[in-house]
């Protein structure tokens, strides 16, 4: 058994998930409208109570949010809250990325397989923001794994985004010629074309193998984690190796009744917060980077409004039993 394996949750046998109705999957949290109005008129300040290693505030004049940054294992600073772009394609993607940046988001996450890198790049350009203020992530797809093919895929993504460099580049899945792809990313990193390199959806055995030959350790592992699949052991293991855990679908895309969950709603009542805000604050206090995705401006603002309250120990403990310890996305296995 590898050095990380004892910490990770292995799910060799996945429970079959009951398909949720479209309405349940898509239904957004109902919330007091004044919260969104408040978000539009206030500057939210981090309370400085998190125990994040290397956490720092990142304030931008004229934006709605002051989002803390964490420091990766190579010294690069990464916003702890960002904007995901899965399913945001074409004109919708351009509009959403531009709006998100205007509201204060600085971490923008995309991937080749999302087929929206051009739209994301156009949204960045439309926003008019200085490139240096952004933290842009993309991911190499498994079909491109290998040294030469990996370098070519990176350049294609860079060209589509219209950028000169990426802040973070990830291997999207642990399949194929991982070694060749990683060596390509290491060289691109040394050339200054990528500020940090990492992986996505890697479990213990995959990380063990990668670490056996990597000259540069991954800075990030982007995995599924949310209230129903908490991955606490994985988080603790990654912290020991100074690999930052990042959550894709941190709100489970509303699955399993996330936005109407009674436990999250009860906690939210204490602070006048929605289920989504409670969840994002929970991630934040666990030191996990999140990239919630939405096409609604009011939800973008709502997701930013998590830095003016703190979940106490009792709140955190109430969320623990929600962990089903199984993926909520079996179709992606």
What are its keywords?
11 strands, alpha/beta, eight-stranded parallel beta sheet, 12 helices, 333 residues, TIM Barrel
Structure description:
Helix content is 37%, strand content 14%. The chain has 333 residues and is α/β, with parallel strands linked by helices. The protein has one domain (50-323): TIM Barrel. The strands form 2 sheets. It has an 8-stranded parallel β-sheet with strand order 4-5-6-7-8-9-10-11. It has a 3-stranded antiparallel β-sheet with strand order 1-2-3, with no helix packed on it. The chain is globular, with a radius of gyration of 19 Å.
What is the class in the CATH system?
Answer: Alpha Beta
Number of helices: 12
Task: Give the strand order of the largest sheet, numbering strands 1, 2, ... along the chain.
Answer: 4-5-6-7-8-9-10-11
Gyration radius over CA:
19 Å
Computed structural class: alpha/beta
Which helices and strands occur, and which strands form pairs?
Blueprint: H1 22-26, H2 33-41, E1 56-59, E2 66-71, E3 77-79, E4 82-84, H3 90-103, E5 107-109, H4 117-127, E6 135-140, H5 147-161, E7 168-171, H6 178-190, E8 197-200, H7 204-213, E9 220-224, H8 232-240, E10 244-248, H9 262-271, H10 275-285, E11 289-290, H11 297-304, H12 313-319
Parallel strand pairs: 4-5, 5-6, 6-7, 7-8, 8-9, 9-10, 10-11
Antiparallel strand pairs: 1-2, 2-3
